[in-house]
Amino acid sequence: MVSGLLEQSNSFSLIQRMIEDAKALEDFAENFENLDDFYNNQFQTWQALIKALNDQFKANRPALEKDESAKKRWMNWSVSISWLSLMTSFDISIR
Q: Structure pTM?
């Protein structure tokens, strides 16, 4: 989409292309705003949550594994935390 805009050689064709791609450009702007909000306002909160869950729950793991229900929930948390760790490891600066 962006490459199509950059390929335009004059202002008329650029404006025409922007009109043609209006819906895609609006969707792109919304997605960018969501990413910008996440990385500027929520990213540090999620990193703190991941650290707290990893540090605090690991100490209780032996006790949690003795109870099947707690063990199952612990495994679900572990998968979620692993996924969150992966997603927040991409330290993208959007400024």
A: 0.47
